[in-house]
Amino acid sequence: FGPAWVETQPANGSGGELEVRLKPLDEFRCLLEQAGKFILIPGEELSDQADGKPVHMNATNVTEALQPVGGATVEEVIRNNLRLILEHEHDSGRQLLAHLNHPNFHYAVTAEDLARVVEEQFFEVYNGHPGVNHLGDDEHMSIETMWDVINAMRMVALDADPILGIATDDSHEYHGQPGSRPGRGWVMVRARYLTPEHLIRAIKAGEFYASSGVVLDDVRYDAQAKQLSLAIRPAPGATYTTEFIALKKPAGAAPEGETAPGELPEAEVVARVSGLQPSYQLSGDEFYVRALVTSSLGADDPSFADQKRQAWTQPVGWRAARSGQP
User: Fold this and answer.
1) Domain ranges within the chain, ordered by starting residue
2) Are the C-beta atoms of 324 and 290 separated by less than 8 Å?
3) What is the pLDDT of residues 63-80, one digit of tens each?
4) What are all long-range contacts of 76-80, with beta carbons under 8 Å and residues at least 24 apart?
């Protein structure tokens, strides 16, 4: 908006340093938003910790700044801050989205921590910050693996709904600066109207997919036919492989309250399909199936070595599995 837009004043005792006035959303949103095309939604990262471990959560569509409430353990911090966000949602009378950020950042949040907070519906299956250990290491599982481990614990041992996966860029640096830049991760939402309420309701209903560069023209699950179908939008020079990943039902039930990963079923790739129209027919012995689409093209702005463009759909089939219906 030009030099006049930036308001500064000398900082007290700064020796020439300047203070810059941060403008509230209401001062500039009308200059940027376009009905049905582009909106701004206020959000906040609640940066908390437990025993020196960083525990970060996002609250989207807030009306005021929320102060993290802490807790004695990682699990307690997640639960306490989620309760804070849900209370703000109730008090404000508007839809809010709460999600757990980058669990492998400093390897702070384990699958067990997140599985047990069954009220938390969302976490970041991909975060574009280069320091969040997306792939894990020799002692820690990748985020991709963690997603299915969490859901195995929830569905088998805790009799709870699965957690859903979102993607974010976690941008901190702008204007070409190195580090955590914008545009590395996002979600695509099937919503009727471009409003915060309609977007968040659709996300809560699972009508979205996460992406780090792959665009899907459609994602459909036919519950009657038990078929998950995708339509991939082609990019020049790209080929695509879709992995259908299933969590199969175990032969016997896990002991009540037991959440050890070694005693739970492991997710497996049940099909690999090339092309732009992949689909998978569920057999009925799955807790759920989800799809991971990987492009042959590298990420435009990779956050880790040899990163490819990908898209993640949400687990499907789990409602029937939870109800015990065929």
Assistant:
1) 27-323
2) no
3) 999 999 999 999 999 999
4) 76/50, 77/48, 77/49, 77/50, 78/109, 78/113, 78/114, 78/117, 78/120, 79/117, 79/119, 79/120
